[in-house]
Write a structure and sequence with these properties.
- The chain is an all-alpha fold.
- The protein has 3 helices and no strands.
- It has a domain of 45 residues.
- Helix 2 packs antiparallel against helix 3.
- The two termini are 15 Å apart.
- The mean pLDDT is 68.
């Protein structure tokens, strides 16, 4: 519903304002896409490191699991 509302607002705009709004939306989408890729890379590296921590130190492993869950929850959130 929100996307339909925003699409209708964009279609109601004229010329230059529409271009500026479209550029702003694209810049935000690129930022959030790069943020998601960074979080995914951190998640993968954290998974590898977590396998090593599990054997070395249980407290670090628990901390790693909590951080991994937080990253997963954040990456599921849609902007």
């Amino acid at each position: 519903m929100c996307k339909v509302f925003l699409r209708k607002q964009i279609l109601d705009l004229k010329g230059e304002t529409k271009k500026k709004l479209a550029e702003s939306i694209m810049q935000k989408n690129i930022f959030y896409a790069s943020l998601s890729c960074s979080l995914l890379a951190g998640y993968v590296l954290g998974s590898v490191a977590g396998g090593l921590y599990r054997r070395a130190d249980p407290l670090r492993y628990i901390t790693h699991l909590l951080l991994q869950r937080a990253v997963a929850a954040f990456s599921r959130y849609r902007f």
